[in-house]
């Protein structure tokens, strides 16, 4: 906006600075239509953003109610093992007997042969030698050792730097220093053999062949064993104590051998508390969304008081930013229509939200929840509640259908889908840029026009000053001759 300077009350008696200020203010009103549009676009973008956030929060709940919320199992507490269940685990009872835990193979050098962990144990001057650690499963580590890398500390360092399937450490025992090798692969497949190629002297410290038993330079301090257990009378052998492939969607972690060889009952029962929490969140998040859409579409009657004949009332400033928006109206209609729908089997007791204790206000669409009725429905008919929300592949339930509508409008980040609202906001952003360009262009025109008036007023001041001076001179001359 142009600044007003260099003007004042000229000798002609005109306050040109005040006049120019009034003209500049009048010129600025040319921006009003554009700034009003700018504010309108900004308000619409903000409103759609708030609605999108509310929809995505509700979308999280609909995804839970589409299945996961009803697939949580409550598991019994057991001593010989612990169990965890993932989505898809079925209720039921299983007898589990743990007869043996899996363990990793572990070997140790002879402590009586090494009194200093930094002592070189290989043949000096023989160049590189190779330490070979092989597993029963066929995996093999080959570690080259230089002359100055044959101490227990250096060997352990080289093994660990290789980041293979063996962990090495050096310990001090009563007899001396020992190198401990532990397989990272549990079970019999992790059984190790050790040899040194290119250095017989070091091989007298580091060598182990399972076939030789106790006739080895290294001793076995941890046996390679598989886990053994029975589930429902069937015997299983596994290399690890974490077992995922016996009971569908259940992980068994073996802790110890079953007492006296007796098994324990693993009991899985459906945990309805997760579904209840998800339904409570659904009601809360649904109401939050409807609150946002109602605020954005609100209409308040125009104030026509005090208007003269022929004058038109301006829109009320309390109207929602998206009042009359057809996209918003269609979206709300779809959401409310789905929420009032009937789902599930025709002979089921639970087919609508009302059967769960959820009432919907016909005017506002807001939900209220009767938790006592919800608890009873989940206790008596959990499968029907699940089917009402999740449905089937051929007959999708309420949560699935509502989730699809939300994805249509708000998109889905996980599936990389952009919804209708994103397209609408992009369109508003483009219009906002065009309005900003028009505002900048109009402001330059206004500034140029005000500058022209300022120049004209300066010229007027100069002319008036000259005229006043001439007038004073003539008056003075006349007075001399009078």
UniProtKB/TrEMBL annotation:
Cross-referenced InterPro entries: FliD, FliD_C, FliD_N
Domain annotation Flagellar hook-associated protein 2 C-terminal: ranges: 224-467
Keywords for the protein's UniProt record, in alphabetical order: Bacterial flagellum, Cell projection, Cilium, Coiled coil, Flagellum, Secreted
Compartments where found: Secreted; Bacterial flagellum
One Gene Ontology cellular component: extracellular region
Superkingdom, natural source: Bacteria
Entry's Gene Ontology BP terms: bacterial-type flagellum-dependent cell motility; cell adhesion
Domain Flagellar hook-associated protein 2 N-terminal: 13-105
Subunit structure comment from the entry: Homopentamer.
Family: Belongs to the FliD family.
Task of the protein: Required for the morphogenesis and for the elongation of the flagellar filament by facilitating polymerization of the flagellin monomers at the tip of growing filament. Forms a capping structure, which prevents flagellin subunits (transported through the central channel of the flagellum) from leaking out without polymerization at the distal end.
PANTHER family xref list: FLAGELLAR CAP/ASSEMBLY PROTEIN FLID, FLAGELLAR HOOK-ASSOCIATED PROTEIN 2
Name of protein: Flagellar hook-associated protein 2
């Amino acid at each position: 906006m142009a600044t007003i300077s260099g003007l004042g009350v000229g000798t002609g008696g005109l306050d040109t600075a005040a006049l120019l200020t009034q003209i500049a203010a009048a010129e600025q009103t040319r921006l009003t239509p554009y700034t009003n549009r700018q504010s309108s676009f900004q308000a619409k973008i903000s409103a759609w953003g708030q609605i999108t956030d509310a929809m995505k929060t509700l979308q999280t709940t609909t995804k839970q109610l589409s299945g996961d919320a009803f697939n949580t199992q409550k598991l019994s507490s057991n001593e010989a093992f612990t169990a965890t269940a993932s989505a898809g685990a079925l209720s039921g009872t299983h007898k589990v007997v743990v007869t043996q835990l899996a363990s990793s193979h572990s070997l140790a050098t002879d402590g009586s042969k090494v009194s200093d962990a930094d002592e070189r144990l290989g043949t000096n001057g023989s160049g590189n030698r190779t330490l070979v650690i092989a597993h029963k499963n066929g995996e093999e580590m080959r570690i080259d050792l230089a002359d100055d890398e044959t101490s227990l500390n250096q060997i352990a360092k080289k093994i660990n730097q290789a980041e293979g399937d063996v962990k090495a450490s050096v310990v001090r025992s009563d007899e001396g220093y020992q190198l401990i090798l532990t397989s990272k692969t549990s079970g019999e497949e992790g059984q190790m053999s050790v040899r040194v190629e290119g250095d017989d002297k070091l091989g007298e410290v580091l060598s182990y062949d399972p076939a030789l038993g106790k006739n080895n330079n290294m001793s076995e301090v941890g046996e390679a064993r598989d886990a053994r257990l029975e589930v429902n009378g069937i015997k299983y052998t596994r290399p690890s104590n974490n077992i995922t492939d016996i009971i569908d969607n259940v992980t068994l972690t073996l802790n110890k051998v079953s007492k006296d060889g007796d098994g324990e009952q693993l009991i899985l029962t459906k945990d309805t508390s997760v579904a209840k929490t998800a339904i409570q969140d659904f009601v809360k998040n649904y109401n939050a969304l409807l609150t946002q859409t109602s605020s954005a579409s609100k209409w308040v009657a125009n104030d026509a008081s005090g208007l003269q004949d022929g004058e038109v009332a301006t829109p009320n400033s309390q109207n929602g930013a998206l009042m009359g928006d057809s996209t918003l109206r269609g979206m709300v209609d779809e959401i409310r229509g789905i929420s009032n729908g009937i789902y599930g089997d025709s002979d089921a007791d639970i087919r609508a939200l009302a059967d769960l204790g959820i009432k919907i206000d016909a005017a506002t669409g807001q939900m209220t929840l009767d938790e006592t009725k919800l608890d009873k429905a989940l206790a008596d008919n959990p499968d029907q509640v699940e089917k009402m929300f999740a449905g089937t592949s051929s007959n999708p339930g309420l949560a699935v259908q509502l989730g699809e509508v939300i994805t249509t409008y708000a998109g889905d980040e996980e599936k990389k889908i952009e919804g209708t609202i994103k397209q609408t906001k992009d369109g508003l952003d483009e219009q906002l840029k065009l309005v900003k360009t028009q505002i900048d262009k109009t402001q330059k025109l206004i500034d140029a026009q005000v500058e022209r008036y300022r120049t004209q007023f300066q010229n007027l001041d100069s002319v008036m000053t000259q005229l006043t001076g001439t007038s004073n001179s003539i008056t003075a001359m006349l007075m001399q001759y009078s």
